[in-house]
Amino acid sequence: MTDRSPLPALLMAAAALGGLARGTPARAEETQLQLDEISVESVRGPSGNVATSQDGAATSGGGGGPSGVTGYTARVSPTATKTNTPLIETPQAVSVVTREQLNDRNVQTFDEALAYVPGATINIAGFDPRFDEVYIRGFPALANSSYRDGLRQIGSGFIFPRYEPYGLEAITILRGPASGLYGQGSPAGIIDATSKRPVFAPFGEVWLQGGSYGRAQGNFDLGGPVEGSDGTMAWRLTGVRREAGTFIGRGTMDDQLNIAPAFTWKPSADTTLTILGEYQQRNTPASVYFYNDPGFRVTRFFGGDPAFQSLDQTQYRIGYAFEHRFSDDLIVRQNFRHYGVFLSAKYTQIDSLDDTRTLGFRSTGYLREGLVQQTLDNQIEAHVATGPVAHTLLAGIDYAHYGFSYRMGFGAAPPINLVTRNYGAQVIPTPVLGSSTRQIQDQVGVYLQDQAKFGDFVLTLTGRHDWVFQDDRATPASALTRQDDTAFTGRVGLNYILAPGLVPYASYATTFVPQVGVSASGVAFKPSTGDQIEAGVKYLIPGTSIQTGFAGFDIVQSSILRPDPANLAFQVATGSVRSRGFEAEATANLAPGTNLTVAYSYVDFRYERQTSYTGQSLDGNFVSGIPGNTYTSFLTYAFPPASLFRGLTLGGGLRFIGPSYADDENTVRNTAKTLYDALVAYDFAALDPKFQGLRAQVNATNVFDRRYTTCQAGYCYRGTPATVIGSLIYRW
């Protein structure tokens, strides 16, 4: 174990000075209104957002999503414990991005949704409509820690499942290792997206949008009870259709079709079955990069070509969430999903320039990939007492299987004339695809958790054992490579109620990630492991919807791959990195339509043992692309009904991203940048009640059109310029 500074230990000792009472889970019959009494208003907030929980009571754990939502604040989330535990009782830092915040900012991409979350870094690789890219506390978060409705979504190669933000009810971010409940994953934590689910009241919503770079988009969200079902069935259908260009120009596009049906059957107050589906097609450029000159300078020579630059991705999912309550003290749940992602990508890139910088010499690539996964999670939750100690017990077994295959081909493209920029004017041959490579992985995990309450203390103990089996075949004729890994991970956390709503806490958690391949001596790489010490305090101001939190953390990830210092042609699993820092966050609903979110993060993320591919030691260097300081804030203000400006909502956001290093050798720094976002909206019902439900909204990001580049690992990327989207919204 790497030596640690005494600060986290002192914070843990301070946090262990007191405890927190855990509320009794709401009974199923208490969380449901009578179906014939539900109106549209009962499922909509002041801004018109449809909530999946009729009265703000807790939804089902293990994928049910946040509840107790008011504006930008949420009081409960099952992500941290797979039970309906209030956020202030969870022994790790948790943030929730609610539907109202997603609507106010008119979020268009998943990484954009996390732009105001503490500890999160987005767009490290600049503007890129192909993928979502998020780092939490310095670690990549979406490759191994992406979840939807409590179930992990695998990504590999060029294939990563894309989230359509309009189809989400909320996004929950659990920061720090979470393998004790979820199995293999990044030390970043868990990012869990909650799908929109049916509600037992009729409603509808349509968005018509237009904006920068030829954007034309339509969104719809419809649902309600099934007629003739006696209030036992409900449906929902959400969809998005977009045709848009990008600031890169030259025939680049960001088009999408998304359709997501959902159906709920609730034969009694104790039993619920919800079926969740989705079909999505996306078409984006396969290359978004500009040629780099030496010295970390981005030229204006775009590497792609409209004649050969499409990335087409199709994905689907179908699954269900089942819950049955035998009693208030015994609940069973089962969540299942099957999904597939298929990709075809053709791209060009500029490899070099001639001496006069009039010709760019290019190469091509052609990829075809497919990934199919099934995931199943079974849970039993029980409430028991042993003397004065009340226990919330959770036991589960989950299983995940995926198959990933890909074929690749590479070739040459005719040179591009950089003076005339004759993009799209030449025939570019499609490379021949190579043999198929296939990877299959199965993971089985068994986990136990006890949340024990004694007086004002809540002690959370979590333990899990995983078995991972992976088969790789490089070509159909090659030998099958088999690698098996096992790991035990866990978490221990302590919460204490110091005063009403004021809860200090401390925790220790571990994580692991299997690593494919062998060393120079032919020994399989052992899994990468990580652990975290975290301590902090959470405060929910009594009688308000204002909550704040502070967290200090120290994470070490060990046994990561690095070039073998004795043989640079191979790798060894002996590297390590360390992330230390602290975060502060506040969210508040101050009045209907008036919300505030503020976040500050400090991250010191360094290599402890690492070697570059040139053999140079990187020990003690900062990991490139990760800013040390970030500050974000977003405020909306809805003028009250008695005001002269009633119906008008104004909002604005600030995102400060501090300097970071452009390369892992720490020779060049990215400069700090501050970006501004804005919102103007008007509710036409303020003019005349007959316009009830009609709203106009304009959103702008990077309002002052700050032109900037970001470099990571020695390569530099262009940031997104100013973007404006206007929306006309009708809700009923």
TrEMBL record:
PROSITE patterns: TONB_DEPENDENT_REC_3. It is found in: Cell outer membrane. Residues 265-703 form the TonB-dependent receptor-like beta-barrel domain. It comes from the Bacteria. It is a multi-pass membrane protein. Residues 59-68 have a biased composition (Gly residues). Keywords: Cell outer membrane, Ion transport, Iron, Iron transport, Membrane, Receptor, Signal, TonB box, Transmembrane, Transmembrane beta strand, Transport. CDD domains: ligand_gated_channel. Gene3D superfamilies: TonB-dependent receptor, beta-barrel domain, TonB-dependent receptor, plug domain. Residues 87-190 form the TonB-dependent receptor plug domain. Residues 1-28 form the signal peptide. It holds the Pfam family Plug. InterPro entries: Beta-barrel_TonB, Beta-barrel_TonB_sf, Plug_dom, Plug_dom_sf, TonB-dep_rcpt-like, TonB_sidphr_rcpt. Transmembrane segments: none annotated. Residues 40-72 are annotated as: Disordered. Belongs to the TonB-dependent receptor family. This is Iron complex outermembrane receptor protein. It comes from Methylobacterium persicinum. The lineage of its organism: Bacteria, Pseudomonadati, Pseudomonadota, Alphaproteobacteria, Hyphomicrobiales.
